[in-house]
């Protein structure tokens, strides 16, 4: 059976495309025809026609920073439940961080994810650990990772503190064209701290995380990159590539801006909770556990800087840092709460509500941040609306208004500060791997 998606707003920033049109997908899952304007694609009796009524047909969204907890913590999330959450949020692919139990620091862990990924409707990319056990002491087998299709390494949640190990990571990774993804945190400044250091941490009597912690580690890493570039201590065709995970402060953004101007291969991502909330929201919240994450919700000034970074192009991607936890790990005093929130199902709505509707960015830029750029950063195949290409779509109703509720979430966990929040913009379906997964309105 072929699918015809008609009366769609075809929006693909990669191709500078934003037009009304229709796309026909053959029964092998590949695009058969694309027409623009009101011209209709001829349908046969066996074709299934999906009338989008002006909804957006975008390249499938991709989240480059996720935690599905399997193996080892399946009570929080599984590959299956995480995939269901991704589909509900409009994502056709995610990249999974390696801090599972055990840590994915060898091809065995990669093979486990790859083996199970075939049964799910989305793509599951694997990010390998940067060091064995993510302990920051001995580098993981980057070469073997590359042979298993891994394109990036990270000790997410545990930044490498030793500068010599970090230097070796840059040199080793560049030999295999692996992206280094860094959770920037100087641990000597953050031990036993739970929220942003400032007025509100003082009022709550909680140990604060100074926001300079992020910039200190980032600055060290960029200095190492400069050193390796200037001294040509690597193959000039194999330059280090570096990505800043969940950037959250003005100081860090300024460092990224300068690094880009200096020609370093540096990119960064931001999460919806960091461009939406601040430590003031945590202060006034009744259930504070759902506002505890790393990096912490920062000051209003830093949040404003993130919005500016999104508007001026400094920030390259929006990623959820989807981090599910069981209720008992969040419904507790703030200084005992686990770090992290779920984000796959609220990411698109927050992006449209907080960025597009408020004229910070356009909807085309939003799709670029949520789909095109994450794939580009991870060296994944781009999505094109061209005959012969695999169909990989997210269907978006930018005008849909909805309320976040625990009952409606497909994730195994509901640890989000956005419960009961009204949002505008929602995915109504995805088409990937030759199948349509859609809400009742499109059935």
Description:
It is a single chain. It contains twelve helices and 18 strands. It is of the alpha/beta class and 443 residues long. It has a single domain (61-377), classed as Metal-dependent hydrolases (TIM Barrel, Alpha-Beta Barrel), CATH 3.20.20. The strands form four sheets. Strands 1, 2, 3, 4, 5, 16, 17 and 18 form an eight-stranded mixed β-sheet that branches. It is globular. The model has no long low-confidence stretch (mean pLDDT 96).
CATH topology: TIM Barrel
| Apparent shape | globular
Main β-sheet description: 8 strands, mixed
Query: What is the fourth-level CATH superfamily?
Result: Metal-dependent hydrolases
Structural class category:
alpha/beta
- Total beta-strand segments: 18
Précis, in short:
By secondary structure, the protein is of the alpha/beta class. The protein is 29% helix and 22% strand. Helix 5 links the parallel strand 11 and strand 12.
